[in-house]
Write a structure and sequence with these properties.
Number of strands: 0
Radius of gyration: 22 Å
Strand content: under 5%
Helix content: over 70%
Number of helices: 15
Number of domains: 1
Order of helices and strands: HHHHHHHHHHHHHHH
Largest sheet: none
Length: 444
Amino acid sequence: MNMRQSAGITPTASSRTRAILRQSGIGIVSKLGAVAATLVATPLMLHLLGSQRLGTWLVLLSVFQWITMFDLGISAGARNEIARAIAVGGEWRVRRAITTGWLYVTLISLALFLGAALALTLTPLPNWLGEHAFNGVDVTTTLWLLLGGACATFALSYIQSVYAAMEKASAFSLYSLLVNTCFLLLLVIALVWSIDQMEWIAVMYIFAMIFGNAWLIVRFRQNFPQYMPCRRAVDNSLRGAILGFGTRLFIIQLAALVIFTTSRVLTSAWLGPESVVVYDAGFKVFSIVTMVHTLIMSTIWSSFTQAYERKEFEWIRQTLKRLALLTLPLIAACVVLAALSPDIIRKWLGVEQVGSTALYSLLATMTILSCWSNIFAYLLNGIGNTRVQMISAIVAGAINIPAAYLFTVALGMGLPGIVLGSVVSLIPFSILGPLAVRKTLGEH
């Protein structure tokens, strides 16, 4: 027996580590390209729309993100089931998991579109948003475009979860690179032709997202024809495994929805759409750190699932130790970005979009807590243990908006209060998550 095997690290686990490093490397390069495209696109959009309409667009984009999260966690549930099928072997079992998950996601996408369409038709929501949330900006047509685009993207984006289940999570980054690059090129065309309507910006964004997913689907068909969905591969016996875990994860996603994506809505409502641009600029700067960490974690999620199924607990422990050590350079990066953010944003978007020192310090704290928590959240998600996350998520979702209101409005902190509310919401799981993982691994 060689040294690696005697230490509890099997050849399979060793190759898994190399695959994670390879996928992370591809993902980081792709994501850096995507971020570069976003950094160039933002000032173009500011020029086309102005700060008020750009702030409105960013809020509507958050609504777009809300819709894509309402899959009841099915994509994640299918991802775990696909990873388990790969771990135990069996081409047909993998195909059944992929097909069944895709069917459920498509059905929910259609139901979501019909429900949201009824809400837009039968309620005065579009007019109310234009009058009260966006200072008179008409968003009716843009809302309808985003609704249709979100539901279409919702179903097509399932392909990314399939790639991730096969330990090819760099597909997430390749998708971002394709979408952001395509959107940037369309914005350049809009600038040349003087197209400055928000509705056309929405059309360009939706086209870019559909193009990115279509490219991934075509590549999957070429590389893995044996796994392509087919009608006879639908297996309703997998419903419990996919929907059970998915529903629990959906509750957790709702908390993340409240904590992160409502920040722009609250900022617009309490401080005005122009403040959303200031918040979003700072958020994008720190997203560089989040991006790198999420890329690594997205790759490891399904690796945790497969390792857990194969009882490779030593590999899991060693990987957790490396990820914990990785937080040290991430903390250093956040401190540096907090100091440099005013200069970066001043040169990028102009002095009007620069926030306070407190804002960037709190964004750094939020980023650090988020990365730390994700280490343990991704492991627990990978093995289907979501109890502690659910409890923490319910608490976090319940206190986020009241905390943000307390700091932002009642105490008059302004924009930093929005971020401080998010920081407070992240604290419970940053403590309980590591304890839950320690207990779970201690049982083995």
